[in-house]
């Protein structure tokens, strides 16, 4: 089975909390703070693997969670970092944000990796909070939460050449005789339900990759049948080889086929219609083929047309050399036609948000969450550190700007505080 779209959730590990600890050594009754830092949380990393060709591994498991970092320990010992998760995907996989449908990264090279969810940072132990005026801090810092994301993985086949055309025109047969690929071949429509890849060796270390794209039908660009699923794979090819059944044995006119398929390409995306294209007039061993070929050349005198038969392998050499010549000096462009492409750009939640809603003053955000988890409200020094951080990060000034008065309540997560200057 060919699985080319997968929806998964990735959760990076939380950073370990810093420790509150004290030195207890012989002959040093007044030992100082010795709490170690927490370890960093593990990240979730996507990496390409040339041995994979589908997203089948993601069909059943929908959630992937990296390990948390260990908490800090006494004697200034750091907690162990959480282990990363490396998820292997095929070359040509797009990472898209599930909510916005924006492309986050394009894994279009062998061995390419992308950190999709960053692990949280470990919190600092109380040994890191000593100052000239604070010799014995009795508080530590909590670890940060790891990133959590819902993403869509979408595979788009990477190939030099894409074979396009109506069903049953001989694309799979052509691929089977010019390469070592063994696609399913039968005399009925839609034998090919997934893209097949084959390598064509041209001698002296020269070769190119051909993709047999499943047959298109009218309305494919509007999603008729499996149109969008098939068309997405054509985006990656450098050139297209339009395979036409010149015999007309399916009851279709090859001239009309040529027009209709190109209309579907243009309707899907204008860039696809501008892709370099060769025409292969197939099934020339059947009656009526030469007459149709003559009509085709008369209507399109400027097109480069290669005629032959995939079934008998007659005159295929000219086609292969024509493809090789067309690929010469043609750069590979990693194209994607998705709505928006935002490589290595992640929407980050604000660290601190101060607002007034329904008459209530609210303070929230990831930084505030971490600060609250780090605060021991029964400890005077810890509470003073909490207040200093609020003031240093402009929370008090923002509350004043919103018109807060002394004695009014400020809600920070599940806590309610009274505001005093």
From TrEMBL:
The keyword GTP-binding applies. PROSITE patterns: G_OBG, GTP1_OBG, OBG, OCT. Signal peptide: none annotated. GO terms for biological process: ribosome biogenesis. Pfam families: DUF1967, GTP1_OBG, MMR_HSR1. InterPro entries: G_OBG, GTP-bd, GTP-bd_Obg/CgtA, GTP-bd_prot_GTP1/OBG_C_sf, GTP1-OBG_CS, GTP1_OBG_dom, GTP1_OBG_dom_sf, OBG_GTPase. One of its GO terms (molecular function) is GTP binding. Its main location: cytoplasm. GO terms for cellular component: cytoplasm. It is found in: Cytoplasm. Its cofactor is Mg(2+). Mg(2+) binds at residues 172, 192. Residues 344-421 form the OCT domain. Its EC number is 3.6.5.-. GTP binds at residues 165-172, 190-194, 212-215, 282-285, 309-311. Residues 1-158 form the Obg domain. Keywords: Cytoplasm, GTP-binding, Hydrolase, Magnesium, Metal-binding, Nucleotide-binding. Belongs to the TRAFAC class OBG-HflX-like GTPase superfamily. OBG GTPase family. An essential GTPase which binds GTP, GDP and possibly (p)ppGpp with moderate affinity, with high nucleotide exchange rates and a fairly low GTP hydrolysis rate. Plays a role in control of the cell cycle, stress response, ribosome biogenesis and in those bacteria that undergo differentiation, in morphogenesis control. Monomer. NCBIfam families: Obg_CgtA, Obg_CgtA_exten, PRK12296.1, PRK12297.1, PRK12299.1. This is GTPase Obg. It comes from Urinicoccus massiliensis. The lineage of its organism: Bacteria, Bacillati, Bacillota, Tissierellia, Tissierellales.
